[in-house]
Structures are given as C-alpha cells and as structure tokens.
Write a structure and sequence with these properties.
heterodimer, B: six-stranded mixed β-sheet, five-stranded antiparallel β-sheet
C-alpha cells in the first residue's frame, strides 16, 4: 500500500489562531487526496476531496472558507483550519488513493486541541 | 448520498472464537467495499476489500462476503487473537469517496 505521512502529529493552539496540517504521499504521486475528521469514539467523516492543481471539493456542511485546502503538488496536500475554536478540536486524517484509485491509504493523523 | 449502517457497535469474543460484523448500504451504485482496522490513536489500516463483481474474498483468518441484491456485506474473523482487539470500520464507495459505518469495537478475551 501507499506510504502517507502527516505533520504535525499533534498540535495545541489558542482559540482564534490558524493551524496548518500537511499530508504527504511518500512513495507515489497522488492526484487525489482526501481529508477526514474523526471525533472521539466516532467514525471518520469525509470533509473534502483534494485534487492536484484544482480547487478542493467540500462535503455538505463543511465550510470551505474555514478549512482551506491546497494540493499544490502530486505529493503534498495541506489543510489549514482558520480561526480555530474549541469545537474544531478533533483528529484530522488524510488519505491518498492508490493507482486503482478507489483504495485509500491513511496518514497517521493529526490531533488538534484548541484551547 | 450513501448511508452505511454497521452492527454490532461492540463485540466481545473469547480468544479462538469467530467474530462477525455486518454492514448495509443504501446506494445501489456502490461497487467497492473496504474494511479498516483502527487501534486507539492510530490510523485506520486496510485489512481487506471486495469489489461488486465478487461475492466472497478470503485472506488467512479474515473473510468478507457481499450480497449486492440485499445490499449488505460482512466481515468474518476466525480464530480470534488478542491482537485482533480494535475498532473495525466498514465502508462503501460509488464514486471513489468512502462512506464509513459507525464502527465496531471488538474485544478478544484471553
């Protein structure tokens, strides 16, 4: 499967600040990456689909101006949580599609805590 | 959109026994069904997947079955071991986007 990294692994920030999370595909070029959010003891919820060189596609209910996604290269997608609030505290996980495209491999996740 | 339901939410089995998790989906266009295992604080890891042109797939102690007519699929783990303890998620995909079930917490008692 694909090797995916995320940085940082955990971050604590003050309310109102912005946080950038990086997702890297280490062993192949990913034209599509996905961003998920997972609250404690809950399932993974797709936030957006990140397409290299074009705008991300956001799921219903996800604010595109609050969760900025940039997929500037075939190996890197970034998610910026702008003006973070305590309710944004969650586990953010990215995934990349394999060559078969439908198989997704996940990064290790970023745990965000907003105080 | 796709709606995936997963049962049971928790499952406790004796080591060596089998565990079965069942999922149903709503979108008849879904054609890809992966299963992920997630340990506490870790990333979900793909353990097995099945496509709509196949009814059953097996990989050592893990097997998945798919009934397209009834829109349900199941995960079977045989000869369970303590290291099988984790949260298991089913998912369904019709357009390369995954919709996940709510998860099943499996505890294997030694």
């Amino acid at each position: 499967g694909a090797v995916v990294s995320q940085h940082p692994s955990r971050v604590i920030c003050k309310s109102g600040t912005s946080v950038k999370i990086e997702c890297r595909s280490l062993d192949f070029q990913a034209t599509t990456m996905f961003w998920y959010r997972q609250f404690p003891k809950q399932s993974l919820m797709l936030m957006a689909t990140s397409n290299e060189g074009s705008k991300a596609t956001y799921e219903q209910g996800v604010e595109k101006d609050k969760f900025l996604i940039n997929h500037a290269s075939l190996t890197l997608s970034t998610l910026t949580v702008t003006s973070a609030h305590p309710e944004d505290s969650s586990f953010y996980i990215c995934s990349v599609s394999s060559g078969a495209k439908e198989t997704q491999y996940f990064g290790p996740g970023t745990r965000l805590l907003v105080l | 959109g796709e709606n995936v339901e997963q049962h049971p939410s928790t499952l406790s089995v004796q080591e060596g026994d089998s565990a079965v998790i069942k999922c149903t989906y709503s979108d008849s266009a879904s054609n890809y069904f992966p299963w992920y295992k997630q340990e506490l604080g870790k990333r979900p890891q793909l353990i097995i997947d099945i496509r709509s042109n196949v009814g059953e797939k097996k990989d050592q102690r893990i097997a998945v079955t798919l009934n397209k007519t009834a829109k349900h699929f199941s995960l079977h783990i045989t000869e369970t071991q303590p290291e099988d303890s984790a949260v298991y998620f089913c998912a369904a995909s019709a357009d390369y986007k995954l919709s996940f079930g709510a998860g099943t917490t499996v505890t294997v008692r030694a």
